[in-house]
Amino acid sequence: MCNITQNIIYIRTDLMLAQEHWNMIVAKECEESFFLDKLHPFLTLQSQIVDYGCNQGHLLYEFKANGYRNLIGFDSSSIAIERGKLIYPELDLRVLEKGMHIPCLDASLDAVVLSSALHHISNALERELLMADIWRVLKNKGILYVSDFLICEHSFSQGNYVNGFKEFNDWGLHVAENQFVVRHYSVQAIMDLLKNFEIQWFEQFDFRELPTRRFHCIARKRFH
């Protein structure tokens, strides 16, 4: 399904610089909702699907358990991938070697999953590079499932935003409890990132365990 592409110039990225951090905390499990039933109408069991930032492969296993066959997961944490292979030896899990680049051929994928990855990318240029690369690897009318954190009104989160604004002069960017810089997004910021996609479904949910809010979105590649 995917072949390593050649002759590409890369820059160091927030995601790659965070690799050591995630290697240290990857053992911590975090419950996360995922609405696979919303994706079913857009896919077939033969669809070519990549999970970018797959961690140990939990979401890919959910796809596998529902009959999907052509699955690859990429993550920058080698420890996450190693553990994932032990837990799910039947999955194709690979270490992501180059930041905002999916090592797949142009227009080769039916769907890309981007779950809990964007909030680790604080640099605007790197976010744009990633979204452009997702657009590149998706087939015409291919599907992007993206889920992450939204700016919310809870006092705990608002306190983080205030402190982050003092340090970074950027609302929503803040230092999390694990001392890593993360970003929560406005809905408009997400829509701007998805400017080359047609929104098929978008919904907000309050996170069950933390005073935060998440969005889940299915978007279809808009052919230029």
Automatic annotation (TrEMBL):
Name of the protein: tRNA (Cmo5U34)-methyltransferase
Source species, domain of life: Bacteria
Organism for this UniProt entry: Parachlamydia acanthamoebae
Gene field: cmoA
One matching Pfam family: Methyltransf_11
EC number(s) from the headed UniProt entry: 2.1.1.-
Methyltransferase type domain ranges (all copies): 50-146
Keywords: Methyltransferase, Transferase
Keyword DNA-binding: no
GO molecular function: S-adenosylmethionine-dependent methyltransferase activity
Tagged with keyword Methyltransferase: yes
GO biological process, one term: methylation
